[in-house]
């Protein structure tokens, strides 16, 4: 389709072929659908409007609030003051912000990159050789932790870790042990591994199914052990899936707010990850401008992480 069509084509006798639809609008070599520019724009406009309303405008509004001393109450709520980069310098020099960054990196590295990645792959590889009913049962239990609402999951974990009469203390015979107070970071790490492993398991199951059985059989006939088979046959086939999965779960965990419902960021800020820090400063502390500045810093960190993984994916594609 290479030229604008404004009239119906004619047959050998010169009569118009009325059975063919008439096309209007400009078309080009890349217009494989033959919609023309006008109709294509009409299809895209709703998506662009949603992106502008729910992504672009909030981002610009956050950027605007980040340069204001804007509080939820008081004189700065009625008349916000322009402070330029003051909120950003205050955040970068705040010890609580540095503590939140370190906690967030530890939370992401331990629970997502290592925990969900490793456990998800282990489950996917193990269940391939399991009998049908065992595979269905384990898949159902793992998926259940993923699809349950966050509030329900947190309630169940509160009952599990309760200091007085909790299930875990009853099983371990450790009455009075306060897990969320004594080990807050370990608690939210284990919680996130348990809750988010299902996605990694599903993705790796699909990736392992794509490995040709003939390649595995050839490796077996050559006497390759499990580790060598994984390194030489399986890993080259699923490397892209590993990077994609790691990118997604890293970003999801980095912005996850669920730990707040489990530990509240405490005690003494020992589980105060960046999303929790933003919430406590913006909503509980009423400093909307300061919280917006931290949110923008989080956005930049997310972009850096995404670009790092995308660069690895592009290098693999080359």
From TrEMBL:
GO terms for cellular component: plasma membrane. It is a multi-pass membrane protein. PROSITE patterns: ABC_TM1 (PS50928). It holds the Pfam family BPD_transp_1. Gene3D superfamilies: MetI-like. Residues 1-30 are annotated as: Disordered. Residues 102-309 form the ABC transmembrane type-1 domain. This is Amino acid ABC transporter permease.
């Amino acid at each position: 389709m290479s030229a604008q069509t404004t009239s119906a084509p004619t047959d050998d006798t010169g009569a118009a072929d009325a059975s063919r639809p008439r096309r209007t609008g400009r078309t080009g070599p890349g217009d494989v659908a033959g919609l023309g520019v006008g109709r294509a724009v009409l299809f895209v406009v709703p998506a662009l409007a949603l992106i502008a309303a729910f992504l672009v405008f909030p981002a610009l509004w956050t950027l605007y609030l980040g340069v204001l001393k804007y509080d939820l109450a008081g004189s700065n709520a009625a008349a916000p003051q322009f402070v330029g980069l003051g909120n950003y310098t205050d955040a970068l020099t705040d010890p609580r912000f540095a503590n939140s960054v370190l906690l967030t990196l530890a939370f992401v590295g331990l629970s997502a990159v290592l925990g969900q990645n490793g456990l998800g792959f282990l489950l996917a590889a193990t269940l391939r050789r399991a009998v049908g009913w065992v595979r269905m049962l384990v898949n159902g239990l793992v998926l259940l932790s993923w699809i349950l609402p966050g509030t329900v999951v947190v309630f169940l974990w509160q009952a599990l870790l309760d200091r007085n009469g909790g299930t875990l203390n009853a099983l371990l015979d450790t009455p009075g042990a306060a897990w969320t107070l004594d080990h807050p970071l370990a608690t939210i790490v284990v919680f996130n591994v348990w809750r988010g492993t299902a996605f990694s398991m599903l993705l790796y199951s699909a990736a392992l199914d794509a490995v040709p059985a003939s390649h595995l059989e050839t490796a077996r006939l050559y006497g390759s052990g499990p580790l060598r088979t994984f390194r030489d046959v399986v890993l080259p086939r699923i490397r892209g899936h590993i990077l994609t999965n790691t990118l997604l779960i890293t970003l999801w965990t980095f912005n996850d707010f669920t730990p707040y419902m489990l530990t509240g960021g405490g005690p003494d800020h020992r589980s105060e990850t960046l999303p929790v820090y933003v919430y406590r400063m913006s909503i509980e502390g009423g400093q909307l401008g300061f919280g917006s500045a931290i949110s923008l810093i989080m956005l930049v960190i997310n972009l850096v992480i995404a670009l790092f993984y995308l660069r690895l994916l592009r290098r693999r594609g080359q």
